[in-house]
Each structure stands twice: as C-alpha cells, then as structure tokens.
C-alpha cells in the first residue's frame, strides 16, 4: 500500500472572491469547497489555508482517533459559558468531563426520567389549552420553554418559574448575537454586558439556593457541582457558575432548535407524522445537527486521508455537510425518517452521522436530549397537526443552526386528545 502523501487540495481563490462579493453565509463557502474539491479540502480567507473535513473516515480520524492532535481553542461562546466543560481544554476539561459523565448515562439518567416526564406534561397541558381556544402561539417559543424547564428541573430540582424564564431569555439573545459581535473580546462582552449580568444573577441565585437547601424532592445536578466544590479547590463558585450556564445553554438551545425544525418539517411532510418519534428526531438531527460546525486546531503535523496537514492549521469538521452528502445519503435533502427505521439502509461509517459530535468531546447530554425530545413528541403528536400562520424562509447559522424567523401556528381543530 502506498504511503505517499500530498497537499490538501484547495478551492480556487476566484470562488472565494465570488463568495465574498455575494456576502453569503460561511456555510455556503464550505458547501462550495466540499462540492468543488472534496471531503478533505482547503480554502483560504487569509494567509493560511483552513481545512474542511466532511469525509466520514477523515471525520473519525480528527474527532475520534486523534483528539489530542486536533484540539479546541478559545470557544466563541466563552464569554457566556466561561471555563465550563464546553470551552475547557487540557487537564481541567478531563476532570470536568469525568465529573459530569456519570450523570448522563445509565443510572444517572434514571434520576431525570420523572423530571423530563413532568416538563413534557406541562407543555402538553399548554398545547391542549391552545387547541381548545384556537389561539396562535409560537412553536419555537414553546420548544424553548419546554427545553429550559426540563434542564432547569434537572439542575435544580425545581420547575421553571416565570421570572427565571424571563431572565434566561438573555441566554438566547447572547447566542443569537454572537455571529455579529465585535472580534475584540472586551468589545464583544461590552455589547452584551446587560444580558450577561442577568444570567449571572440567575446563576448565582440558583447556587445560593442549592447551597442553602430548599423545598425540592430530590437535589439536582447543581448539588453534584457544589459537592465537587467541597472536595476540589478548582470548583470555585465561578467555575460552578460556568458549568451551570454551560449546561443551561447546551441543554436547552439545541433541544429547542431540533424540535422546532421537526415541527416545520412535519408541516411539509405530514405523511411522516406516523413514524416512530425516535426516527423523526434522528432525521431532523441529520438535516439540522445542533453542532453543525466543529472547529479544531492541529497542534502537530499530521496526515488526513493521505493529505498533509501542518501544525497550526485550523480544521473545520462540518456535520451539516456530511449529513447532506449525496455520496453517503440517498436524496439527502429529503426529509425521510424511514432512514432510521430498524434495518434501514443508511451509512454505517462512524463519521457519517454525528449530530452530537464524535469521540472524546461528543455531547455529554446526548441520551438526555433524545429522551426529552421523544417524551414530548409522544404527548404532542396525538393532538393533531399544526397549521403555521407564517414560516421562516431559511436558517441562521450561529452556535446552532436555527430557523431565521418566528413560527406562529395554531393547532388545527379536530379530535386531538380527549
């Protein structure tokens, strides 16, 4: 077998210039790079090339096999989540990940089942009211409220109250603002300072309440963080705040977005409503993966799929494009939950489907997210289809890929739930 290596093929500069002139989204440049050059390809926005990785074997190489060679650098959400597990690196990240890991698998997940079910019932009761009254409601807002209620119960053991809900809208505003914030860190923080302050007030109040004890049937995940603070000096109140906000952001933003996309997709494909909820969620995640772009930085020279990658190179793994690659998925732009039915023909390579990332830094809350989405759908889908009064015209690409406009809808009259 040949061991010859070659440079990463690069997109022509004229195509990059055309993209600049069009003022298109970054995802469009990435798509042109993939189509024009391949699954391991480079484009140049400055003096050094950036390498795009969408080929499944190359994805597995970067994320699964060699996370020590391709590391995270300063995360764009750092101003919001601080040194939480999402943005931490090195040994601190390993310690933080180890502490949280057990909370979201096996026995750990069982303690959240009842909290998920209660939050889902609370949402179903609101939808039943909407169905009876015929009033218009925003689907994305309902999904945001459900996902935030669920993660708040998991963290604190308490239901989400209206005041906390209002204050934590600041999270969504900061996330939405990130792509347009100044590149200077201090200027960026100043631009969202008021929202960051609101988030801090909520976080520290929750920490104080958990530390004091309160009227909860069972302590939440915040108690685990506080106990870590009693044992490990690095778990200061600041780090506990950062982990709390990280779990709030990662735990509700992605779930709410996935569910919103799913209801929009079902409006276009009503025949899919009878599919298994897990298959519905899996297909929505294929088309709109929460972690649509995973930036990494090569810390040493390496070879990806026969291509030389120099130390210091920025590498972008793009699940969004991998999931829409016609070489991997039949008719990839089509919404088809049957792809995820038992025994269905779909790509089996580890790097071909990665809505929650892959390898050591894959999302901790994958099982939690899948359980809460299916629990909610089991209650909402029998109520009947939605009728959207208006729909977004496209997607906005930030930390997540989200609908770019409001989603007003009514529940159509019908038998629904008794």
Describe the structure.
This protein is α+β, with helices and mostly antiparallel strands. It contains 17 helices and 13 strands. The chain has helices at 13-22, 26-37, 56-65, 78-81, 90-101, 107-110, 113-133, 139-156, 162-167, 169-177, 185-191, 193-212, 221-231, 237-268, 277-287, 319-322, 366-380; strands at 6-7, 40-44, 49-53, 70-71, 137-138, 294-298, 302-304, 307-309, 314-317, 386-388, 395-397, 401-403, 408-411. Helix 13 packs antiparallel against helix 14. The mean pLDDT is 92.
Descriptive key words:
Cytochrome p450; about 10% strand; about 425 residues; three-stranded mixed β-sheet; alpha+beta
Q: What is the gist of this entry?
A:
The protein is α+β, with helices and mostly antiparallel strands and 418 residues long. 49% of the residues lie in helices and 11% in strands.
Ordered list of secondary-structure elements with their pairings:
Blueprint: E1 6-7, H1 13-22, H2 26-37, E2 40-44, E3 49-53, H3 56-65, E4 70-71, H4 78-81, H5 90-101, H6 107-110, H7 113-133, E5 137-138, H8 139-156, H9 162-167, H10 169-177, H11 185-191, H12 193-212, H13 221-231, H14 237-268, H15 277-287, E6 294-298, E7 302-304, E8 307-309, E9 314-317, H16 319-322, H17 366-380, E10 386-388, E11 395-397, E12 401-403, E13 408-411
Parallel strand pairs: 1-8, 3-9
Antiparallel strand pairs: 2-3, 4-6, 5-13, 6-9, 7-8, 10-13, 11-12
Helix pairs in contact: 7-8, 7-17, 8-14, 10-12, 12-14, 13-14, 14-15
Order of helices and strands: EHHEEHEHHHHEHHHHHHHHEEEEHHEEEE
Q: How can the largest sheet be summarized?
A: 5 strands, mixed
Low-confidence stretches: none
Give the CATH topology.
Cytochrome p450
Architecture per CATH nomenclature, i.e. the level-2 architecture: Orthogonal Bundle
The helix-and-strand class reads alpha+beta
Distance between the termini: 66 Å
Percent range of helical residues: 40-55%
């Amino acid at each position: 077998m040949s061991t010859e290596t070659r440079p990463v093929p690069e997109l022509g500069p004229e195509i990059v210039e055309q993209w600049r002139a069009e003022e298109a989204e970054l995802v469009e440049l990435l798509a042109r790079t993939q189509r024009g050059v391949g699954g391991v390809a480079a484009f140049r926005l400055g003096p050094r090339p950036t390498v795009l990785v969408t080929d499944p074997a190359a994805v597995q190489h970067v994320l699964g096999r060699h996370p020590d060679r391709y590391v995270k650098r300063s995360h764009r959400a750092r101003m919001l989540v601080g040194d939480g597990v999402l943005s931490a690196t090195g040994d601190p990240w390993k310690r933080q990940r180890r502490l949280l890991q057990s909370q979201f698998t096996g026995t750990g997940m069982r303690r959240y089942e009842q909290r998920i079910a209660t939050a889902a019932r609370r949402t179903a009761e609101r939808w039943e009211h909407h169905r009876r009254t015929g009033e218009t409601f925003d689907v994305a807002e309902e999904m945001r409220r459900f996902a935030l209620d669920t993660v708040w119960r998991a963290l604190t053991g308490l239901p989400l109250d209206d005041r906390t809900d209002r204050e934590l809208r600041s999270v969504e505003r900061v996330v939405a603002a990130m792509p347009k914030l100044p590149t200077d860190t201090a200027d960026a923080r100043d631009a969202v300072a008021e929202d960051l302050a609101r988030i801090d007030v909520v976080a520290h109040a929750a920490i104080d309440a958990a530390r004091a004890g309160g009227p909860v049937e069972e302590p939440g995940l915040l108690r685990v963080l506080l106990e870590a603070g009693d044992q490990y000096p690095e778990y200061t109140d600041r780090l506990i705040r950062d982990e709390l906000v990280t779990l709030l952001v990662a735990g509700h933003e992605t779930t709410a977005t996935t569910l919103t996309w799913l209801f929009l997709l079902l409006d276009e494909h009503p025949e899919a409503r009878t599919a298994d909820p897990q298959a519905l969620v899996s297909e929505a995640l294929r088309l709109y993966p929460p972690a649509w772009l995973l930036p990494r930085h090569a810390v040493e020279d390496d070879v990806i799929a026969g291509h030389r990658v120099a130390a210091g190179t920025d590498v972008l793994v793009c699940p969004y494009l991998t999931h829409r690659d016609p070489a991997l998925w039949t008719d990839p732009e089509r919404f088809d939950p049957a792809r995820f039915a038992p025994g269905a023909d779909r790509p089996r390579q580890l790097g071909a489907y990665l809505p929650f990332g892959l390898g050591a830094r894959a999302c901790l809350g994958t099982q939690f997210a899948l359980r809460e989405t299916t629990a909610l759908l089991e209650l909402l889908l029998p109520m009947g289809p939605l009728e959207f009064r208006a729909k977004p015209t496209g997607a906005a690409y930030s930390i997540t890929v989200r609908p770019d406009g409001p989603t007003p809808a009514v529940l159509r009259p019908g038998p629904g739930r008794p």
